[in-house]
Specification:
This protein has one domain (13-37, 49-442): Porin, CATH 2.40.160. It is 5% helix and 55% strand. It contains three helices and 21 strands.
């Protein structure tokens, strides 16, 4: 059995009032768990014939204040267990299985419970044909997808029930370059065995081209996406999205990324014309104490400037994992959004990581809504449009501690200062403080 260490993904808390401090105490107690032993007699870079491992996660979460939506619960407790197995039958044939058990404590709202709970089910079950690093590899079955640092398609490991896909992924490699061809359907969470949703599919191509000896990466993509139409939230229909990301490093300590995408297609018999863009820049001070990285990001996605005309302008975000990218509080998604963030990442010690971010959130169109992570309208403007485009500001502080290679403790504090677009809406929200404690162990 091989032990694995990953970055931790937290969980949440419940009206049983699983408090921030209670979660912290429980997390510290579990540190007595022994670390996994390395595979005996196995070189560090060897690939064993089979691997079996588990990931255990618990998270407590408290919200004080309504935020953008008074419907959110103020306390949750969440647990998640992943049981993983991988078999390399031959050099060209591999099987992968992941069992998922996700549960929530003390939550009565059925709709939110569905998004957080999925007792014992298959999260992955696939067969991979072709060498792992060969020229061609085909993966068929239930699988997770991750592209462009989860900004385009992500596994959403922060969520208790992350999206999965049924279908096929064909990867073609030539040296350091590759192309991924996708033909998949979304998997719906339901009572009993989760099944693919025939009304939701995604297919297309995503490239990965190394430039300048690997210092820069170009990732073009062309995707077709279909989901159920919801005209009230400007979602659904059959849409085509094309664009790309250019990212990399220069002068050794600077990093950057630029993403541009355009979108067309049809929504509720109305044509879709939308776009999005991201521009990020960072600088790491390697010789300074804590090796701080200062980063800035500007993101914008179009909204619908005229709800009464014959077309839709609200960008469809496909299947990203926006948590942390657009704030710890999960107030917004990249739809009808103007977003500015500045922050710093630090390493106060060998086992510590600290992140501090400040964000300004605004709607791109005051006649369109604020959209949450579900892509549904969370805050709607008054008739005729809102007087202000300010959703608000958010300040996040996250501290991670790794007492052992297979254990991560995470403490997060976030405050959302509600802007006039939220406080002046027909169903006004308010400012909110959000506290989390999480523990993750890999065995």
């Amino acid at each position: 059995m091989g032990g694995r260490a990953t970055h931790m993904v937290p969980a949440s808390q419940a009206p049983l009032r699983v408090s921030f401090w209670t979660g912290s105490v429980v997390a510290l107690c579990v540190l007595a768990w022994p670390p996994p032993s390395a595979a005996q007699g196995q070189p560090a870079d060897a690939k064993p014939r089979y691997e079996v491992w588990a990931q255990l996660r618990a998270r407590s979460e408290n919200r004080f204040g309504a935020g953008e939506s008074a419907a959110k619960e103020d306390g949750l407790g969440i647990t998640r267990v992943w049981l993983n197995a991988k078999l390399r039958a031959t050099k060209g044939i591999r099987f992968g299985v992941q069992l998922n058990d996700a549960r929530v404590i003390g939550l009565d709202a059925p709709q939110r419970r569905r998004a957080l709970e999925d007792p014992l089910d298959f999260r992955e079950a696939y067969v991979a044909l072709g060498p792992e690093d060969g020229a061609v590899e085909l993966r068929v079955g239930r699988q997770q997808l991750e592209f462009m640092d989860q900004r385009l398609i992500g596994a959403r490991r922060w969520s208790n029930t992350s999206p999965m896909f049924d279908g096929a992924q064909l990867t073609i490699r030539r040296g350091e370059h590759r192309v991924h061809l996708l033909g998949v359907s979304n998997v719906g969470i339901r009572d009993g065995f989760n099944r693919p949703l025939r009304s939701r599919f995604l297919y297309g191509a995503i490239g990965s081209i190394q430039l300048a000896n690997g210092k820069h990466l170009l990732e073009p993509f062309v995707l077709a996406n279909r989901r159920e139409e919801d005209a009230a939230s400007n979602t659904g229909g059959l849409l085509g999205t094309a664009g790309g990301r250019l990212s990399g490093r220069f002068w050794e300590t600077w990093d950057y990324q630029v993403i541009l995408a355009g979108q067309g297609g049809g929504l509720a018999h109305r044509p879709q014309r939308a776009w999005m863009g991201v521009c990020g820049l960072g600088k790491t001070f390697d010789s300074a104490p804590g090796q701080p990285r200062l980063g800035f990001e500007w993101s914008q996605a179009s909204g619908d400037d005229n709800p009464n005309d014959a077309r839709t302008g609200t960008f469809d975000t496909l299947h990203p994992a926006p948590h942390r990218i657009y704030g710890e509080s999960d107030i917004v998604s990249l739809r009808n959004l103007k977003f500015l963030k500045g922050g710093v990442n630090l390493r106060p010690g060998r086992r510590w990581r600290l992140t501090f971010d400040v964000m300004d959130l605004r709607v791109a169109s005051t006649r369109d809504a604020l959209y949450g992570l579900s892509m549904r309208a969370a805050v709607r403007p008054p008739a005729g449009g809102a007087a202000s485009d300010s959703i608000g500001q958010e300040v996040d502080l996250v501290l991670r501690y790794y007492p052992r290679p297979n254990v991560e403790l995470r403490f997060g504090a976030s405050h959302f200062f509600a802007g006039a677009f939220v406080t002046g809406s027909p169903n006004p929200g308010e400012s909110q403080t959000f506290l989390t404690t999480a523990l993750q162990i890999e065995l």
